[in-house]
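Weekly structure sync, notes
Attendees: PL (lead), two postdocs, one rotation student
Agenda item 3: pending single-chain targets
PL asked that the sequence for the first pending target be pasted directly into the notes so everyone works from the same version. It is reproduced below exactly as submitted, 203 residues in total.
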Amino acid sequence: MPCPECARRETSFSFASATAVYRYHEVVRQAIIAAKYPRNTAIARELAVRLADRYRVGDARRSAGEPDALDSDRQGESRGSLVVTHVPSPFWRQFRRGGVGTGSLASRFAREMNFPFGSLLETKRSVQKQAFLDDAARRENVRGAFQVRRRWRKRLVGRTVLLVDDVMTTGATADEISRVLLDAGAARVDLLVVARAIRDAPK
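Predicted structure, written out during the meeting:
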């Protein structure tokens, strides 16, 4: 079922579904922050394994005809048409951390599921850290900030993309990236995140 925040949206997200393992808080938050750094590869690996486990639960439910966050449109889909990718980080942020952040999480998830993985996207310009911005500023911050890498533009046509990120808050980044992927010819985008930051509905 749509969460209250999604239900309040005037327009649908560009991604077809969003699946999370946890709610974003406390220990989960600490683990996600730690996993961004290369020295904590064991944490990133464990989060990827748990994300894969959650994805398999969805597969099992769909096979049994039960509803799940990844809806029935995905039933019977060939795994050969899938490709896993990640939300790209600006180069300066990668350099500071010494790694690619969500790229490691996504590649480990793909390895766990035996799915093909590719860094499909790159940033066209610098973006501010979304956590410091309000909802409207987040949307504006990422608008036009991403593009599909040249070598993937033809190979993307007709494929379903599993977009992996660590946290979804407003969905602005994933929505913009999904729009870019669909405009480039992807058939569908499904979002997979370790955690979802769910805010209470306004009273």
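Discussion points:
- The two ends are 21 Å apart (CA to CA).
- Confidence is low (pLDDT under 50) at residues 69-76.
Action: rotation student to compare against the earlier draft before next sync.
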